[in-house]
Amino acid sequence: MKSSVKIGLLMCAMILVVSGFTPNMAGASSSEKIQKIEQYVEKQKNISKIPGLSLVVVEKGETVYEKSFGYADLKAKTPVTSKTLFEIGSTTKAFTGLAILQLEKEGLLKRTDDVRKYIPWLELKYNGEPQSITIDQLLHHTSGIPSNSITQIPESNADHALELTVRTLLNQQLDRKPGSSFEYATINYDVLGLVIEVASKQPYDMYMKQQVLERIGMNDSFVGLHQLGSNEMASGHKIGFMEAQAYTPPIYRGNIPAGYIVSNTNDIAKWMKLQLGNDPGSAIDQKLIEESHIPDLSVEPFDKDTYYADGWGIMKKHEKQYIFHAGENPSFTSYFIMQPDEQLGVAILSNMDTSFTTAIGQGVMDLWEGRDAATNISDKYQKIDRIVSILCIAVIFFGAIFILLSIRVIKKLAGKQRVGTKLNVKRALLLSIHTLIAAAALALTIMFPKILFQGVPWTFIKVWGPMTISVFPYSVIAVSIIYYVFGLLLIFTKKIKVNSK
Predict the structure, then answer these.
(1) Which 3 state secondary structure label does DSSP give 99?
(2) 305 dihedral zone (left: phi>0; alpha: psi -120 to 50; beta)
(3) Distance between CA 238 and CA 246 in Å, rounded?
(4) What is the pLDDT of residues 364-397, one digit of tens each?
(5) Ordered structural domains, the chain, with CATH
(6) Mean pLDDT, to the nearest integer, of 177-188?
(7) Distance CA 75, CA 81 (A)
């Protein structure tokens, strides 16, 4: 009897010991994971030059990790917090897609409808023939609208900016037959925004705020900067001379349905929980959420094992399904990725236009799931900025040399060591060659967008490209003028011969 009591007491003690140590071991594992994530994010943030970013991880209906890094405002050194607001870019599209499904459920539209049922004047052509484009095709980027249509979106803060944006399509041809293949064109979702206005008989921003964001509980989020009622907005940035430069782009109110919801990680956590089926108290029908994740398999995948749904990319990777989307605006970026089987979601918001935001978000998901994160990240804007920065320095260097040489000639004129002279045949030939060289430099500068950016308008490049892109042409023009003036000084003056005794 005593022996059995001893054995029982020993077993109880062992259970207590094991149960006492288990939370600590789990805590250590979780702590190690978070430490790896924070080290990774800090390192990539420094490499990318992102001023500030906010990160949130949700799992099984809980916000399990939320942290902010860096500054919302570099100049004022205002730290980013979970309340800091960012433009979320194209991750806005999933909100617009959900609104379309809501309106369909209410019987106000059908996704199989021709878009002309709601916008009768929107007649688009392929090979000169008018085409029928369905709402579904707009949702899935199979409408045939070209991706470069983004370059035609007008700057506007007018109430009718959305219609102005959609009307730009009337001047453009479709570059493929609707429904035939995938081509990402951000303006597809601006067309959907106008459909929402017609079907709901409400301005897009009001409908989205009241019928989507507020129903989810995203009360600190806004539909466009004009709705902004908070001082928590981060300052936007883009790369320039290999550093983050504060930048305020033009307002594109007509592009809000495709890219300009403003939110923070507190609210985005609620959005991801809804997407993962972990928000039973939401007024949004969960069936609509599930439906918004159904990929369009009628066309070829747009990436390896990756198809498009209603504002979401659906990808198979590591033998799992992931739901994701990136967002990119001229001075902000975002990335959301979710793994529904594990009910896991990661979101990152940053106040700079860089592909590092997407890479960091993917890296955090990998680390959370126990894989190594990619570190060989490259950013197209950093590459362009580095090249153009070097070119700017070279151009400015030559400009400084021409200025010094011009000053030297002027000093010699003042000192009577050079005097004016008339054109002769030789000097006229030199003037012609000199003029051609200066004109060629100016012409190349004007043609710069067509040569390097396939005819993309200069106004678009200035907004979306690195800050150095805007500086470079002006520096070339300035140096060309300095060079031309220096040449004229040489051509129209001559040295005075000094007679030796």
Answers:
(1) helix
(2) left
(3) 7
(4) 999 999 999 998 999 999 999 999 999 999 999 9
(5) 34-373 (3.40.710.10), 382-495 (no CATH)
(6) 98
(7) 16
